[in-house]
Target: YfhO family protein
Amino acid sequence: MLFLNALLIPEEILNFSDVVHVWYFLKTFTVDSWRQTGELPLWNPLIFSGVPFAANPQSTLFYPPFWIFFSIPVHFSITLLFVLHFVFAGLGMYVFARLRRLSFLPSLFAALVFVLNWKVVAHIFAGHLTQTAAWSYFPWLMASIDYFAQKRSVKSMIGVTLCYTLLFLAGHMQLFYYQFLVASAYLLTLAATTYRDKWFGISVRYALCGVFIAVCTAVSLFPVVELTQYFHRSGGTAYSFASSFSLPLKALAGFILPYLQGIPEPGSNLKNQFFWESAVYCGILPIFLSMIGYRSASRVHSLFFGSLFFFSLLFALGANGPLFKPLYYILPGISYFRVPARMFLYGCFSVSILSAFALQTLMDDYKDIRLKPLLRICGILFALMVLAHEYLYYFHSNRELTGSGRTLFYLFCGGLVLLGRYKAWLKNKYLFALIVIFISITDLFTMEYPLITTKPLDNLFPANHIYGGVTNDPTLFRIFDTTGVFPQYMSAQYNVQQIGGDEPVMLGSYLNYIHRAYRMPSDDTKAEHSLFTIPNLNKNIDWNRINLLNVKYLYSFNKIDQPNLIEEGTTAINSFSDESSDDLFSSFSAYMISNMVKIYLYRNARALPRSFVLPITDQSMTPDDTLYSFMYNNFVGLEPAQILDYTSNDISFKVTTDTPCYLFSSEIYYPGWKVFVDAAEADMIVFDGVFRGVKLAEGTHSVEFRFEPASYIIGRRVTAAGVVLLVLSVLVCFSPLEYTKEKFFLFFFR
Model:
């Protein structure tokens, strides 16, 4: 129901920021490249002047559900994938609850709270597709850990392996890391308590699962591991960066007031201020029920899920709490990620299962003695909120309690139904459970349904003359966009390459080069500094370095006084509709937009060709010295190379020279790129630490740069072997005769 409108309008795209700016871009590029060449793109030339693609976890090239992009239009595939993972997550939570011996209605309650809590749906609203996919595996992973600890069989090992494999391939490394920590802690808890005499066998088999997971994910794992050596976050990031987007202390009031930061508006990052990172609301009734949820759980599970809630909350506080900083220095891997607030997703999981335990308890025993203090807490909170609401609204005109009216309403309804159960007014346990579910889901659903909106695909590509010169230019070039007027999803649509981009994976060597081109000091090159936001292009720009990047067009908010730049056109910001401008300028604050009137398009008259010949005038000079010599002599005598073919994984040139020379290409170097001269592999030269090149003798030569990373080739073979072994194991260990209709019905519905 949450995605009903989106499913009924397949010609429109979800109005989520990251859907438009990230996923439409990534998948349009993937599909177009595959259709052009018949092979998967391992390299993406559209952003950062070229960046590894298969090594980028978010490319999700090897995640099976994402293969629907090759048969269904990209924009509607995104909608379907959100829906499928949303349903898959709910089903997984239901299965996990059933394994914890909860009956049908409490299990259904756990599933609904898990998928509809404000934290999860807020991330869906933000368009976080890989995060949604990774999160959907968590209840299945916990269920497989439960089964594994109990059985320790090959069948149980297959379940753990399959969950971890798909979780890794889903592409969100931060959630994979978090879920590995939580699931391993859960297994350790079970091994140390319930299965104390089996701990050694559990440990050995879990380690074997780890080996099998590495084999099955090798096609993605090996390139990712290779990238970590060249990634700009290699070795970790500074504490200030890793703790960015910590959960603010005032956000804790969001347990009761979900609209504390205001009511979200679909499609807008600027006005919503990344509220999904500070969202914690799980519904009024689930929060209160979780306080007595340990009653029907075993001692081990009540202790674990209660501890998980408080751990995830303290971790999510990041720099605002006491836990994150010591973990940053002690626990390997924490420093590679930012946004510690995402850890509270597992707090929401704890609330979901603990509240389901409580519902089961109250269904079985309406005279539970722990219900009385809970009713008192509800009553006191209700009274305090009424007083605060009246005081702030009527005496101070304060809007800090936005949406408090709905909180009061659901708090009153929840307290009333709990009181009815305690007083034996609701003796029918099924009616009681249905009312609890109805109140909780109405509470959550009415908040979230308005967020799931769509918009026409054509709105992504506003008609404006500021694009014409760029999109109609048939030559090979890059653009330097300092405004955000040419977002990367338009780059995928029109095959326009940029020197900037919006993507957390970038090469450290390229980031250093950009900083030198901007003449911008950077104390922490591992942090994500913008690659296109420049306050004033008249100052501090090394135009020779920009020219080496084959930059032909520039977009700027300010008029640039440079002899090499020719003004091609201007447009007013208000010429864009409010909706499209929010998409186009999402990288900028509302203040910047409101104080900038025009966008200028410039053509760079001194743009260097994509590849050119550098004659070797002095054999004692290094390739870099030869390049610098030509650079600071305005490239006198430079001859362009003829481009024969240009695809994501393969670039071919024809070069004719009368003297020994270097062929310089402004393509970015990365391990795996090979160069072939006249079909024979030659030694690659790396110019200025970032560009590709090769030394040539006099004559006419064909030169081909081909991307064949050994990490991908070896990983593909290892994964193929692992998948074959996994399929054979499934065929041997799982018999459909085991699963009768009666067993299926009893498990899911009794």
User: Anything to note?
Assistant: Residues 611-708 form a domain with the Immunoglobulin-like fold (CATH 2.60.40). Residues 74-99 form the longest helix (26 residues). DSSP finds 28 helices and 19 strands in the chain.
